[in-house]
Amino acid sequence: MSTGGNEERKNPPPETKHSLWLRRAVIASFWAVVAFLGLPVWWKTTAIYRADLPLQDMTAWANGQVCKPIFPIHIAVQAPLLPHDAHHLIHATQQTLNDLSDFPAHQLRLVFAEPPQPANASQQVVADGSGTAELDDTVALAVRLIPVETGATPRSQLQPFLATLDIYYSPSQIPSESSTNSPLATYIAQELHQLYAQERVRLSGLYSNAASQSESLSPELAVQLQRDSARAFKYAPTYHLTFSLFTPTSTPSAWDIEAALRQYMNPILESFSGISNFTIDTQVQLYANFSPSIRQPEYDNDAKAWTIFKEDVGGFINAAEWPLSPSIGRGPTINFALYVPDEAQSPLFVQGSRDNSWLVPQWGGLMILNPQSYQATLTKEALVPAMQVFSTQLSSLLGLPQTPASLPLRISTLIRIHATSLLFSASSTLGALAQVYQKMPTIPVPDPVAKSVDLSLAHLHRACELLRDGRFQDALENARTADGEAEKAFFERSMVGQVYFPDEHKVAVYLPLLGPVAVPLVMAALKEIKSGIAAVKGR
Amino acid sequence: MAPDSTHKAALFAALFAAAAALRLLLFQAFPLLPHRLAGRVELSTPVSSFKRLQEGLYLYTHNVDPYHGGVYHQAPLLLPLFSFLPDASSSPFATNLLFTVVDLLSAHALAQIADSGHAAATRLFKSSRQGLRWSSAAIVAGFLFNPFTLATCMARSTTTLTNLFILTAMAKACQGASTTFLLALSAASYLAMHPILLFPPLLVLLYDARADRSKTTPNALAFTAVHTLGLTVISGTLLLASALLTDSWDFLGATYGVRLLLPDLTPNVGLWWYFFTEMFDSFRDFFLGVFWLHVASYTPGLTIRLRTQPLFVATTLTGIFAIFTPYPSVADAALYLSLVPLFRHLFPLMRYTFLASAAVLYASFLGPAFYHLWVYAGSGNANFFYAITLVWSLGLSIIVGDSLFAALRDELDVQRPELRDKEVKRI
């Protein structure tokens, strides 16, 4: 205290020792609250919680160091031969196949399967494939060797709705024990190689994208692949299909769509059920006019039909007035629109062709239907051409490859492609998350993110193993979960909140409230310290 | 003395009878009034609302966890108490009677505090103006016929129970009755949590009262240890009983967790709700901590500074609770405003009485109007009501600050009698 001695000035009397200590105790008590409770609270509540992520694993997956997917495709060979001969044939064919292979991850593996029953050729041809059903579910294709006496041999036939390739040969073509090279083995190998040509290209395309390697591709094939992938929807676990009937007049006012869908659409949807789920709705829109920007149909005397101009096809859908909402429910919507023209303008075609259906990439399909007779209700039979067109369009919108001819084979190809691309996409999402984690030390990472990452990694491992075992369906399911979890982790909402919160803003948060509180506390403490020092010096 | 005490007893009997009659008459004459008042945000907060208590009671009597709905945030032991009464919506008389009795018991405790004389003269401090005081009857009348108290009672807010236990704890501390003091304070803390902060000043008060009575000073450390242990044991027993009643410890999160973390931002007369509606999410926890520490930090400072006037410290703390706790209501202010008249001797030293009373009156009249404009008429917004709660808090803070100043000035007068009635400047 600076009260010592100066009697002239009217200084207040010195404080008593008691009140001095009392004041110090009060100030100390406030500071004790700040220091022992306030600071820990500040530390605890403003610390950014960052759950531990397995960064190394995530980066390793993104760099493709953990899993190099391989595609062992098991092909069962059924031959009415002695086991010894059959094994010899398979061995020779396998060797030829290995020599042909230009993509080592894609491995065709032949296994010998006992033929279901010894029977003669004619019965075998008409067999309903019950033999293949008994095989192990990892078998992707069955090759049936069928001895025939007549016709050119060897020749092959692919069952369109079964994963079965029939090879007709004459018994004399069975390679003998001594020969290392046989025309039949070479033929089978080449057939198989050809069968999987497109799949190999697409898979290696995914590979080269993922590992950014350059590989030589024939230009026309590359263009076709690009076109196919531009058309197809991005993979989703659920798609929503909308079937719409548009007509510029009041007829037809109803359609027998439910029965038509059941009969013509359900089979194809069922075959896709291993890949995605589908939900369906339908609608009818009467008095649906063209948008004013396109020209009205004109009558073409040569073709004896009404035509719309080719340039107008792009604007055919009147997006402003036709109720084709972009997305209903979960997953992307695939639209199928059936346009029945005015009776007075029927038949209606696109100019210069008799083709009256077209596909809008990543949106859906359209068809102009010119019915035989105008009735209030479009019958199931009248809808048959539309259903055929729509199912073809659906296949290409879902990215189903064009070849080979057998549907089960194409679907299993699609499964492998999706499994692989999901695997790569999940890996790269995880890698991106790892990068974000490392590059932005200020974003919080809550526990659910770490949980999703762990789940995603576990499913990735499982998917990779299943691919190696040739269980592609299960692999797809695991890859799907892995991808979903990875996306969930990456797009966690609470992570983005603080990304754009610079440190300067914290001043604005803290100062208005804590500043006024802190000033008297700090000033009081400083004053006490000063007077304390002065008292020590004065002594 | 005898005629005087019978006279006083008759006066109190008349006061209590009048207060009870007034309450019961209002309950009977306006059967819809309690319902209307219970819906007012000024009177019913999420942690004290009678409607929420009824919801909890319904769930409890139907064997559902009362905290499942996320509506009920009050103490579990209230449930068996109220489940003994007949249903309040069909036959409200018993409930109304209960709340009336609670108010009368509070008034009785207040009378005991006033009679003890601890407000102006304690063991270590005698105010130079200790002759200047109101009679306990006047103070009790000021409590019983205070419109805020009356409205709280009519709204049947459970804060009245908390207030009863706080007043009882103060009364028992003034009388030096350890066990009842501990029981009452534990009950108050159990119901509302923040009254635990009254423990230090009231412990000092109890110590002084005990020393006064026995003319010896007990060992301060042992005294503190014993009473802290007693408080812990009784509070622990209450919590354990609650856990046994609800079969789980989940009630802690639903009652005290709600008070600590403020998940329900229903407007009230306090300062927290608006602040936290505007808060950045990432700083919410931090500022919850800051606000709570702000409330808590007054207890040690005031107890140390005004160690000689513990009853005044406790009173000031109830005022601070009425301003700075997360879910304050008019009921908390009613408690504080009923305790302030005990310190009649400080009134001549207070400088802003007009400003404070004007602010409180202004807020009491305009608050409901602005709330109506915001919520019902839609011609105002949240800022209208918040501005009024700021004025309300300002009024209460002026009373708190002014009375603190007066208490310090009073202390100075005792220390340096020559300065009495002179202008002083704080240095």
UniProtKB/TrEMBL annotation, chain A:
A single Gene Ontology CC term: GPI-anchor transamidase complex
Chief localization: endoplasmic reticulum
Pfam hit, one: PIG-S
UniProt superkingdom: Eukaryota
Membrane topology: Multi-pass membrane protein
InterPro entries: PtdIno-glycan_biosynth_class_S
Residue spans crossing the bilayer: 21-43
Pathway annotation: Glycolipid biosynthesis; glycosylphosphatidylinositol-anchor biosynthesis
GO BP, sorted A to Z: attachment of GPI anchor to protein; GPI anchor biosynthetic process
Keywords: Endoplasmic reticulum, Glycoprotein, GPI-anchor biosynthesis, Membrane, Transmembrane, Transmembrane helix
Compartments where found: Endoplasmic reticulum membrane
Family: Belongs to the PIGS family.
Protein's recorded name: GPI transamidase component PIG-S
Organism of origin: Karstenula rhodostoma CBS 690.94
Upper lineage: Eukaryota, Fungi, Dikarya, Ascomycota, Pezizomycotina
Automatic annotation (TrEMBL), chain B:
rRNA-binding keyword on record: no
Pfam families to which the protein is assigned, alphabetical: PIG-U
Family from the record: Belongs to the PIGU family.
Transmembrane domains' residue ranges: 134-152, 191-209, 221-244, 256-274, 286-306, 312-337, 349-371, 383-408
UniProt KW keywords: Endoplasmic reticulum, GPI-anchor biosynthesis, Membrane, Transmembrane, Transmembrane helix
Membrane-topology descriptor: Multi-pass membrane protein
Name of the featured protein: PIG-U-domain-containing protein
Lineage top rank: taxon: Eukaryota
GO biological process: attachment of GPI anchor to protein; GPI anchor biosynthetic process
One Gene Ontology cellular component annotation held by this UniProt entry: GPI-anchor transamidase complex
Subcellular location(s) per record: Endoplasmic reticulum membrane
Pathway assigned in UniProt: Glycolipid biosynthesis; glycosylphosphatidylinositol-anchor biosynthesis
Protein's UniProt keywords contain Metal-binding: no
